[in-house]
Amino acid sequence: QLSSGKRLHTLDVPGVIDGLTWSATGELLLAATSDWPRMTLDVEVPTAAMHVFRAPKYTPVPDAPGAFSRAAVAGYARDGRLIAIHSLGGSFSAETFDADFSRIEIRQFSGTPAALSISPDGSMVAVTTLFSELAVHGAKVLSVLHQQDFRSQAAAGRNPGVRGEQSTVDWSAHGQSLNF
Prior knowledge:
By secondary structure, the protein is mostly beta strands. The protein is built from 1 helix and 14 strands. A hairpin with a 5-residue loop joins strand 5 and strand 6.
């Protein structure tokens, strides 16, 4: 609770929470997780990279997608669609789901996703990958609208401000530019 600083709930998920996102209605909270570091302890290995909870009691939503064995980044569009980039153990896929979690579209995704941001009008999805790549996709059919490799430009001296791995992306409030 912001006014008092009181903790209202703790999410119980295996792994490390990499990102949280609310549905447009505020009814659902999605937690994207990654694996625990490999240890010699006898612990249960996470089997899901996305977990969806129903507020205000934060009960798990059993029909939600999430049994992805590797990293996932995801977000909710204003119209209720869930857009996720994930892996089932091989290559990554970009996928959209309707409000009932039925698959709408799935496409191959190039790279390892690090962050995802949906444009304010819900028409585009920006995704950064490890190693400083940025891809902008159409949100309806997931087609690639723009792709740029900032790391190779930095190595060539054309973009000296970009170094190492970039892992965040966010749209400006008006949706005309990206912060990367």
